Amino acid sequence: MFIVLGTKSRNPFNISQHHLCSLFIVFDISHTTAAMAPIGKIYSYPGNYRVHIAQVAADLNNVELEFPTFQMGVTNKDPSFLSKFPLGKVPAFSSADDTFHLTEGLAIARYIASSGPASSQLLGADPKTSALIEQWALFGESELSGATIPPLLMVLAKMIPYDEARYNQCAGNLERAVKRLEEAVKDGRKFLVGDQLTLADLAVLGPMILASKFLFDGEMRKQAPSVEGYLKGLLEVPEVKKHFGEVTFVEKRVQG
Question: Is 147:174 a contact under the CB 8 Å cutoff?
């Protein structure tokens, strides 16, 4: 679930593809996990947090992922790629036998999470737990990512014109979402559902690490003091640390 960049027509600010991709880099995705025959391939630019979610799930399930060479605006415009993924979106997943194809980060992560011994941990062992995990995963995608991506495209990627009203609306939406997250972890909870890492935590961590770079600033953190500790705690999990790296908190939000 991300905007597909063209090499010319969709980049009116003439920013290089390499520079645009570097804005999202948190950790190199070029390596693979070790253990078994690959479950499949993921196509994406480096540093895509939606891919990191899938990588953590793969490690916990002891399955391997491959990452073919990928160039945004080139690979995803190739006819062979579009024959499998018609919208040209990334991340995109292809099974090892190339008969099963997925797009949308959460769908990919959910499939990989369900493909090994950690399935019940990541996705829930009963209907109620699974529903709670799904609720928070969708919260991460709709509320957190939805509030973070438009400002990023305005002030970091500069792919769309700066719109102060829209920027402020997104910042307000993020603040509201962060308050909800604070309510959930304010008593020192390490995980959102149960007492171990689930897809819910990973789906929240991804956009929050991104927002922390430019939007989730010191003023907002004052209103949600437990959230910072929650994010840092998730990064103490070895599989999470391996793929997400460190979190950097900006003191003053970046504006246009």
Answer: yes
Per-residue HEC secondary structure of 71-112 comes to: CCCCHHHCHHHHHHCCCCCCCEEEECCCCCEEECHHHHHHHH
From edge to edge, which strands make up the β-sheet containing 64-66?
64-66, 38-43, 92-95, 101-103
Q: Give per-residue pLDDT as tens, 116-157.
A: 999 999 999 999 999 999 999 999 999 999 999 999 999 999
Work out the angle at residue 210's Cα, subtended by the Cα atoms of residues 214 and 52, and round it to the nearest 5 degrees. Answer: 165
Q: Which residue has the higher pLDDT, 27 or 103?
A: 103
Question: What pLDDT sits at residue 68?
Answer: 97
Please tell me what DSSP assigns to residue 5: P
CA distance 121 to 70: 32
> Burial letters for 17-44: b for 16+ Cβ neighbours within 10 Å, e otherwise?
beebbebbebbebeeebeeeebbbbbbb
Distance CA 224, CA 143 (A): 16
> For residue 133, how far is the Cα from the chain centroid?
16
Token pair 């950690």 is found at: 118
Alpha carbons 176 and 160: distance in angstroms, whole number? 24
Cβ atoms of residues 149 and 155 within 8 Å: no
